[in-house]
Structure formats: C-alpha cells, structure tokens
Amino acid sequence: MALFKKKNDGAALNSVLVRRPIQKCFPIFLLPTFIAFCIGFLYPFAKGLFLSFCNFKTTSKWTWAGLDNYVKAFADESFLHAFWYTALFAFVSVVFINVLAFTVAYFLTKGIRGSNLFRTVFFMPNLIGGIVLIWSMIFDGFLVKYNTSVVLNSTFGFWGLIILICWQQVGYMMIIYIAGLQSIPEDMLEAARIDGANNWQTLWKITIPNMMSSFTICIFLTLTNGFK
What we know:
By secondary structure, the chain is mainly alpha-helical. It has helices at 2-24, 26-51, 68-75, 77-108, 115-123, 132-143, 154-182, 186-194, 199-207, 212-227, and strands at 54-58, 61-64. A hairpin with a 2-residue loop joins strand 1 and strand 2. Helix 4 (77-108) runs antiparallel to helix 10 (212-227). The radius of gyration is 26 Å and the shape is extended. 11% of the residues are buried.
C-alpha cells in the first residue's frame, strides 16, 4: 500500500510540475488569437460604430454628425422596410437551418449505412461559393411557366433566398450538432433506455438538454449570417 501510495504521489507531483509551466505560459498561447480577434473583429466593429455617428467619404476624413444619421435612417420608409425584411429573413433562416441541421445530425448519428457519405454530401455546399446566380437560374427555370422570376416577385425572392441559405449552411451546422451529439455521455443514454424511456423522451430529456452549448453556437452563427 505504501509503495502504491508513493507511486500515486509521484504521478501527482509530475502532473503538477507539468501543469505549472503551461499555466505560466498561457499568454503565449492566448495572445496571438486575441490580437487576431482585436484586429479582425473588435477594431473594425468599433470603427464602424464610430463612423455611424459621422459624415464621411473615407474612413480617415470624417465630421461628427451625432444622431443625425440614425434619425434620417429611421425616418426613411425604404430603410425601415429593408430592415424589418432582413430581420424576418434572419429569423426564418435561423429556425429552418437549425431545425434541419439538428434533424440531419440526429439521424446520421444513429449508425445508418453510408452516414459518412451523407455527411460529406451535406457539408459540400458550404465549400462552394458564388452559387447565387446558379440558383437564380434554377428557380427561374421553374417560374418561367408562371411568367415571373425571383427578382420580380418579393415572395419568391424571399423563399428562394431561404432555400439557398439553408442549402449552403445546414451542412456546416450539422457538423457542430454531430460533435454535440457525440459528446453526450453514453451512460446517461443507457440509463434512460434501462428506465424504459422511448426515443422521444430520450431526445427531450437527455439529448437536447446536453446540447445547449451546440444550440447556442449554431443560433448565433446563423443569426449573424442571416443579417449579413
């Protein structure tokens, strides 16, 4: 017992000795990412927010305007229409993308045949850029029978964009949801099965509560993309 305890103490000591240098050097690992975050996000965000209170032609030549730009914007009916239309698009796209992505991820983690192939197929659209014109031609190929186009009818244009953004982003969100599903402890799922819980009860009582971090990430990503 003494020998066993001595070995354990040595292992614990070694573990502490390994951790301490890493803890002291955490700025080396954190600093590059933080600097990149400041350059790529914080500074442009702060600069854009400041310039929204200014009149300017270039970012280096500005004059302070206060709230005049906001007053003019919210008094403009075309701006308000575009703003609420964009908000509606963001809301609908967030709901559709996350529901579809989670559904696909859920079934692909059930051990169905060819799941790896399906994951690749669903993820591929995320790697393809510049497909708006192609999808516009596809939609117009159907709508030409009704003598209209996605650019001539706001309803068709709206749902056309919803289909496009779902096609392109569902695969990316699916990967995040799959990671979340695979991180759920297997003993919890097994305990639910032993207690007699069916698939629906397991989904609502075990799976979804354990995936809140994945839902948060995907909702914020899709919300940001929707407003973009």
